Amino acid sequence: MAGAQTNRLGNGGLIDRSEPLNFRFDGKTFSGFQGDTLASALIANGVKLVGRSFKYHRPRGILTAGSEEPNALVELRTGARREPNTKATTAELYEGLEAASQNRWPSLRFDVMSVNQLFAPIFVAGFYYKTFMWPAKFWEAIYEPAIRRAAGLGRAAGVADPDHYDKAWAHCDVLIAGSGPAGLAAALAAGRSGARVILCEEDFAFGGRLLSDGGTIDGLPAAEWLSRTLAELAAMPDVRIMTRTTLFGVYDGGTYGALERVNDHLPSPPEHQVRQRMWRIVAKRCVVAAGALERPIVFAGNDTPGVTMASAMRTYVGRYAAAPAKRIALFTNNEDGWRTVETALGAGLQIAAVIDARPDVSPAHRSLASKGGFPVLHGSVTGVDGGKDGVKKIAVSLTGGARAEVEADGLAVSGGWNPAVGLTSYHRGRPKWRDDIAAFVPDGAPPGMVAAGAANGDFGLGICLAQGFAAGAAAAHHAGHNGKAGTAPVADDEAFSLTPLWHVTGKGKAFVDYQHDVTASDIELAQREGFESVEHLKRYTTLGMATDQGKTSNVAGLAIMAAVTGKSIPETGTTIYRPPYVPVAIGAFAGHHRDETFHATRLTPSHHWAAEQGAVFVDTGLWKRAQWYPRAGEKDWLESVTREVKAVRSGVGFCDVSTLGKIDVLGPDAGAFLDRVYINTFSNLAVGKARYGLMLREDGIVYDDGTTSRLAEDHYFLTTTTAKAGLVMQHLEFCRQVLFPELDVQLTSVSDQWAQFSIAGPKTRDLLKEIVDPTEDLSNEGFPFMGAREVALRGGIKARLFRISFSGEMAFEISVPARYGEAMARNLMLAGKPFGVTPYGTEALGVMRIEKGHIAGPELSGTTTAADLGLGKMMSTKKDFIGRVMAGREALAAPDRQVVVGIKPTDRARRLRSGAHIIPKGQTPGPGNDQGYVTSVCFSPTSDQWIGLALVERGRERIGEIVHAHDPIRGEDYDVELCNPVFYDPDGGRQRG
Amino acid sequence: MAEFSWDVRSPLDRVLAVGRYGAHGDAGVTLTEIRNFDLVQVMARRGKTAELAKAAKVRFGVAAPETPKAVGTADATLIWSGPDQFFILSKGRKHAMAALAPLRAGSASLSDQSHARVLIAVSGAKARAMLAKMSSIDLHPSVFAVGAAAATSMDHTSVTLWRGNDQADGQAVFNVLVFATFAESLWHTMLDSAAEYGVVVGHSEDLA
Amino acid sequence: MRIVCPFCGERELGEFTYLGDAKPVRPAADAGEEAVYDYVYLRDNVAGVMSENWYHGGGCRAWLKVTRNTLTHEISAVEPAAGAGAAKVGA
Questions:
Q1: Are B110 and B42 in contact, with CB atoms under 8 Å apart?
Q2: What's the rounded Cα separation, in Å, for the pair B150 and A498?
Q3: Do residues A167 and A592 lie in contact, with contact meaning Cβ atoms separated by under 8 Å?
């Protein structure tokens, strides 16, 4: 049974007491209510100690009530859903929630690593830089693992996240960040004006500080105004208000990033639902009403559990009916802090004392003190007694020098308020200093964005409403909507007076950045060591570099640096603000794009047929291609591939080559166009013929190759390699639209229109005769090598037939409209049955092209010229083409270039591997004598040994030379002979036969 | 002599399971594949935009779209696919490649795309919410009205998207033409995106 | 970033591919090696407004000339390439 909620107030709060929830923290069962956060529920149960700090393992409690929390980080959930560094202050309570404290061993109350505190003097700023420098190799082996074990945050789950995430786009006229008074007023004005509005609220409830502080708006209690306003907004069809959604960044062109925690408040997402959704919001205007964050004051012991921000104390008492303490002291330098006293007294809690750093306290507050029976001490807190059990005694230094002690179990601190200047500053904006509130406020913003209310440094309820409303109306107007916005909601402004106080000197550690354990003395040390610039300060001390990005610490850090350097705070300046505003899970950025759906997949027209045949598929770019077709009894891929090659060379086989890029090049200037993009000539290609073409980049290096056929006077059918299909299309469009706009040519991709199969082997014609209409002449005379034309197939459909060969065998490629692709595969099996037809995959295709010495991807490496590939003679000298001039440069035509050559091992039994370096025989391998490398290898069934292609210096002049192959990665060294790259049928008789 | 049968098989044939998918209850999204259609891409030749427009007007009785729009005629839909180019989507071979010689006649280049695309109609109360997960286009009725079209990308896949006539119940219909080899992949993404709203999956043999 | 395609309207960056400086003009066939070398390799590294080639490959496949400030990413003009669509260029 769950323990009693000892610190739950008897009434009040926005929790639903009719819905009790059980949860576990560090294995112990507690209870809370629907509407609690984990933090408020822990507070309601009297739990003060919730974590250990990063470096010193100091006991830590709950500092804030929002996403700025630096201390109360837990591992939420268990197993695959375990999520480290989750803020207890924003984690919503649900039935069965399990959380564990972090960074302690063996337990939170007894943490062995807290001995780090004894060594504290050595863990100062720059400690790692100074200590673990030498010897260098110790870093990876010893220092880093040890440091990571000792200092670290929570543990990741270590297994794949079982939940789904997605991404979505949204569009609006006016985007509003925050649903406090300013944000709601902005939404009202913009919505009434007729604008499309999206309002994002990070919390699970709308209202912002209205939920904690109440107030009176338009004569109504805040809660009533809030529910009326939300009802009005909900009734507007083009206004979308979203809870649990953090606007975390702004990007160019009015694009914003927001993270919606769709189902983080449940144990696991309901079926078919996502855990989180990443929104990309395109907005014409944006009103930032993200409020302000209360800032701590730096004093010794300010990290003791029970030290809480004054506004957070109000939130826990007012919104959650949970008392962080029963006898509360307040340390403030401003008027606003006193509201915590009012809230606490109203809830029946005791005030131990108010320590006010200002010289004067208003008469109203003085009378409140005398009515409440607590002293007002003018001075500052200099120390806190407590440790892991929380605040017990508070040491105060009074103005004038006397000392005092206050007994309390909680200390509320208010050092003033920092407007949330993140969003407005994300485009390298620098906020400006406002003396009256001693805080940075936005100074301009990315185009279309404006800050309103507390985010703009104007804290009063009345001015927040007025500014928000005006900003909402103006934003709608800018976006072209001028409906009647009506009048702004009205409220009084609270008084706000502040005497800046950042740091109280005293004995003991005074924390600036709680999460990274950066103290005031670390900053002073950084200054002494010359790291004065804020960017240096940040990196040297790691101030503001933790997961909270210094929301509670950055300004105090700057102020302390300013004090020790004698500069003003604005002179000291701020670091650059960068998104995201809160940590965003990588899973949310990935969304649907993980595992099998990491990227879009392309399937060939015969894919499902190949799958039925048991094909093994390989990913090539986006494609899934049949790699080989294993048969029962074959012991490995090599056996299958060897069988496929032999079947083709001795009989007939076919392979789906639909992945080649296919482009229709149309129009009267199609031939002239191709003459400019290929190194060889196409305008003189006869209709009904195909030709191999090579394209260069403008720098003279080979870009792509393929066969292009002329199907009509004004119609060429161009093919590209699989890998470059999209890029070649883009390149050709560039040539058409930018380089040669005078040519009348039209381009369109037909890659997906045609299912294309290569049919190869001496019995190819026998197979084709079965399937092609008998009236078609397939003889050497009727359909010569490099012929290309439409033919009729039996059964009444038309196909395109190309007599081209990549395998060196008698071969055709046949194209049918893609929806016939699967039928084509089945019919090729049927037609080829008498001839033992064998489907083959990309491996056999690769083996046969290496046997033939044909170049492919590994040789089209982005460094080779046409001449390097043995194709230099194709370069026309009678016309201009892309790459012509640069290809003629001295270095690209040098005689000692690495050129394609064949290789075979001197030991016939040896296996070759690509990547091995070619070194002259008898020399010690080194960069000075590296003469090239092995590009492609295969086991050649035809040669009955491994063979390969290599790029080797002057390779063609060195045929017959024995050289050394050096493969340091695999630790292999062996001799190979340089040979003619065409291993098979060098005369080409077979493909012409 | 073997008997060859030339079954036409849609790229979605193996994965499209007619019936319900995803969440139970009222289905928020209806996905319907339209299987048989003729699709021809028409690209004006240089300086021939006006001539092509005239030829199209003669043939279809309406002007071909010059901006991202889809124009319905009695027996075809003309869908903008880029500057000075459009698709002719029709059925029954009447406006198939072979029948379009008069359009060609020196003013345009034509390319048959009938097998190069898969056509999927997306409708239902949650169609816009589901499409927002794949498309960066603003589909709000005030922006993307009936007849609006876009050459765009969904889930990094090029598509042609246009809004057809509303259904009898007033629901919007969004038509997606996707490259055939990407279709199965995009289909899975569509199902994933729509699952939380509940999906009715179907196909229709012919263009409505 | 968003680019207003003159044919399609405003679209998100993901639909576009960047190529580079749009200022260099491909030299005539007889311009000589130095001119081509300039064209291929020599680029100004502009901190400020520059004119760039972008491809709307995820949309209408038009090449665009985009005037963009490399410091602020502000886009001040987008024009179609001379030969986009069926535009008639030259005599």
A1: yes
A2: 57
A3: yes
Q: Rounded to whole angstroms, what are the CA distances from A289 to A416, A472, B14? A: 18, 10, 51
Is C2-80 a CATH 3.30.2270.10 domain? Answer: yes
pLDDT digit string (tens) for A481-521? 999 999 999 999 988 889 999 999 988 999 999 999 999 99
Structural domain of B46: 38-112
Domain residues of chain C, as ranges?
Answer: 2-80
Q: Are A677 and A882 in contact (CB under 8 A)?
A: yes
Q: Answer yes or no: do B156 and C14 touch at CB < 8 A.
A: yes
Examine the domain organization and report whether B42 and B24 are in the same domain. no
CATH at B196: 3.30.1360.120
For B136, name the nearest residue in chain A, comparing CA atoms only.
A169
Residues 92-151 of B with CB under 8 A from A: 109-117, 129, 132-133, 135-138, 140, 143
Q: Are residues B28 and B119 in the same domain?
A: yes
- Supply B207's token pair: 């263009």
Tokens representing A501?
Answer: 């106080």
Position A129 confidence tier, pLDDT thresholds 50, 70, 90: low
> What is the pTM for the complete model shown?
0.95
Nearest to A867 by CA among A623, A636, A701, A980: A701
**Distance between CA A140 and CA A127 in Å, rounded?**
17
Is B46's CB within 8 Å of C14's CB? Answer: no
Specify if B1 maps to a domain: no
Per the structure, the count of domains in chain B is 2
Q: Which residues contact A475 (CB under 8 A, 6 or more apart)?
A: A173, A174, A186, A190, A195, A284, A285, A286, A287, A450
Query: Are the CB atoms for A73 and A86 separated by under 8 Å?
Result: yes
Instruction: Calculate ∠ Cα A646-A649-A652, nearest 5°.
Output: 100
B71 and B86 co-located in one domain: yes
Closest by CA position to A696, among listed A953, A526, A874, A558: A874
B82 vs C11, C61, C87: nearest CB: C61
Residue of A nearest to C65 (CA): A738
A255 in reach of chain B (CB within 8 A): no
pLDDT tens profile A238-276: 999 999 999 999 999 999 999 999 999 999 999 999 999
Cα–Cα distance measured from residue A471 to residue A182, given in angstroms and rounded to the nearest whole number: 9
Inter-chain CB proximity C86 and B45 less than 8 Å: yes
Which of A664, A751, A820 has its CB closest to that of B8?
A820
- Residue C25 near chain B (CB below 8 Å): no
B contacts of A672 (beta carbons < 8 Å):
none
- Of A726, A954, A356, nearest to C57 (Cα)? A726
Q: Interface pTM (ipTM) of the complex?
A: 0.99
C-alpha torsion sign, points A559, A565, A567, A573: negative
- Nearest in space to C39 (alpha carbons), one of A699, A630, A11: A699
Q: Where are the beta strands (DSSP E) in A178-305?
A: 197-200, 216-217, 220-221, 239-242, 245-251, 255-260, 276-288, 292-294
Interface test with C, best of A666, A733, A736 (most C CBs within 10 A): A733
Residue C61: list chain B partners with CB under 8 A.
82, 151
**CA A150/CA A152 separation, integer angstroms:** 6
Q: What share of chain C is helix, strand, coil (3-state, %, to 5)?
A: 15, 35, 50
Residues 6+ apart with CB under 8 A from A195: A172, A173, A174, A238, A475, A476, A479, A481
pLDDT tens track for A555-611: 999 999 999 999 999 999 999 999 999 999 999 999 999 998 999 999 999 999 999
Q: Identify the domain boundary among B112, B142, B176.
A: B112
Residues of C in contact with A282 (CB under 8 A): 2, 12
Nearest by CB: B151 against C60, C87, C88? C60
Q: Among B46, B77, B112, which residue terminates a domain?
A: B112
Question: CB distance from A823 to chain B under 8 Å?
Answer: yes
